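sry for the spam today, last one i promise. C-alpha cells for design, 331 residues
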C-alpha cells in the first residue's frame, strides 16, 4: 500500500523524467522485478535495474503499434492508456505474472489519470478566475471612482485616502502571482472594498467583520470572498433606502474553515438561488456565484463549495466551507 501511494505521488505531475525515475524504482520493488522501465509515446524516460535499452526500445515500438501487451523474453511490455488516450508504455523484466503486470499498468494509468485531472482543474480554475475578474472590474471601478469623485470637493483628505484604498485593492485583485491567497489577504481586500462602498453610500452601509484568528492563515482560492461581498452590497443594499447591514464572519468548524457573508436585504426564492449556483439562471446581475462555487469544488472536491441561505424578505447568507488543510493548496 505504501509503495502504491509513493508511485502515485511520483507521477503526480504526469510522465516526467524525474517522476518516472522515482516511479520505476518503486515499481521494481512492488513487482520484485529484475528491471522496470517507463516510456511516453516517444522515448524511454527511466529504467530501474539491468535492462537492455535497445531490446526495450524495440519492444516499446511494437507495444505502442499494437496497443496490447507484448512479450519478448525476458522482457514484457504493456501500453498505458489514460481516459482512452495512449500515454506511454510499461516494460518489465523478471518473474512477473500477467495479473501483476495488469495491476501495475492499472496503478500507473490511474496515477496519470489523476495527474491529468488535476491539471484540467487548474486550467479551469485559471480560466474561471480570468472570467470573474472581467465581470467584477467594470462594476467595481465605476462605483469606486464615483465615490472618490463625490468626495474630491467636499472632503479632499478622505478622497485621497479612498484613492489609496482603490489603488491597493486593484493591485491585489489583478495580482498575477499564484492562484491562492490567505483568508487574511482576502479579508483585507474585502475591508478595503467595503470602505469604498461606505463612502459611495454616505456611510449608510453598516459593516461587521468578525474573524477567528485560527482561520487567518488558511489558504483560499484567489477572489472568492470579494464577489460574495459585492453581491451582498448590490442586491442586499444598493436598491433599498436607509441603512443596510453586511456581516462577514470567519471561523473554524473542526478541520473546516467557514466564511459567511450575510446581508439584511430583500433575499430571493430558494429556487432562484439554486439556479444561480448552477449557472442556469442568466441576466440576474449576480456576479460570479456559479464561478466561485465551481472553482471551490474544482480545488477541494464536490463536497465543498458555496451555499446560499435565503428567502424573500429575509436577506441572504452566502457560506463557504473549505478544508483548513488541503494537499497542494498553498498561499
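last one done:
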Amino acid at each position: 500500500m505504501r509503495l502504491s501511494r509513493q508511485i502515485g505521488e511520483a507521477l503526480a505531475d504526469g510522465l516526467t523524467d524525474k517522476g518516472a525515475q522515482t516511479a520505476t524504482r518503486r515499481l521494481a520493488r512492488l513487482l520484485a522485478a529484475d528491471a522496470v522501465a517507463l516510456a511516453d509515446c516517444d522515448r524511454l524516460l527511466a529504467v530501474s535495474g539491468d535492462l537492455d535499452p535497445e531490446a526495450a526500445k524495440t519492444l516499446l515500438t511494437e507495444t505502442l503499434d499494437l496497443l496490447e501487451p507484448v512479450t519478448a523474453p525476458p522482457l514484457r511490455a504493456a501500453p498505458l492508456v489514460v481516459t482512452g488516450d495512449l500515454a506511454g508504455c510499461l516494460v518489465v523484466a523478471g518473474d512477473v505474472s500477467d495479473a501483476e503486470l495488469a495491476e501495475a499498468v492499472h496503478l500507473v494509468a490511474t496515477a496519470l489519470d489523476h495527474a491529468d485531472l488535476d491539471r484540467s482543474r487548474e486550467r479551469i480554475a485559471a480560466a474561471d478566475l480570468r472570467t470573474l475578474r472581467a465581470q467584477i472590474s467594470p462594476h467595481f471601478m465605476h462605483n469606486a471612482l464615483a465615490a472618490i469623485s463625490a468626495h474630491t470637493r467636499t472632503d479632499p483628505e478622505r478622497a485621497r485616502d479612498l484613492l489609496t484604498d482603490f489603488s491597493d485593492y486593484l493591485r491585489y485583485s489583478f495580482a498575477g502571482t499564484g492562484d491562492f491567497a490567505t483568508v487574511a489577504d482576502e479579508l483585507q481586500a474585502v475591508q478595503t472594498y467595503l470602505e469604498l462602498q461606505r463612502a459611495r453610500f454616505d456611510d449608510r452601509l453598516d459593516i461587521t467583520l468578525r474573524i477567528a484568528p485560527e482561520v487567518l492563515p488558511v489558504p483560499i482560492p484567489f477572489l472568492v470572498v470579494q464577489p460574495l461581498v459585492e453581491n451582498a452590497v448590490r442586491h442586499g443594499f444598493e436598491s433599498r433606502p436607509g441603512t443596510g447591514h453586511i456581516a462577514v464572519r470567519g471561523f473554524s468548524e473542526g478541520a473546516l474553515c467557514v466564511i459567511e457573508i450575510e446581508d439584511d436585504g430583500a433575499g430571493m426564492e430558494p429556487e432562484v438561488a439554486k439556479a444561480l449556483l448552477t449557472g442556469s439562471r442568466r441576466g440576474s446581475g449576480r456576479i460570479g456565484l456559479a464561478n466561485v462555487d465551481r472553482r471551490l469544488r474544482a480545488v477541494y472536491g464536490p463536497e465543498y463549495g458555496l451555499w446560499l441561505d435565503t428567502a424573500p424578505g429575509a436577506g441572504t447568507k452566502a457560506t463557504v466551507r473549505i478544508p483548513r488543510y488541503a494537499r497542494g493548496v498553498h498561499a
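The two ends are 31 Å apart (CA to CA). ok im logging off now
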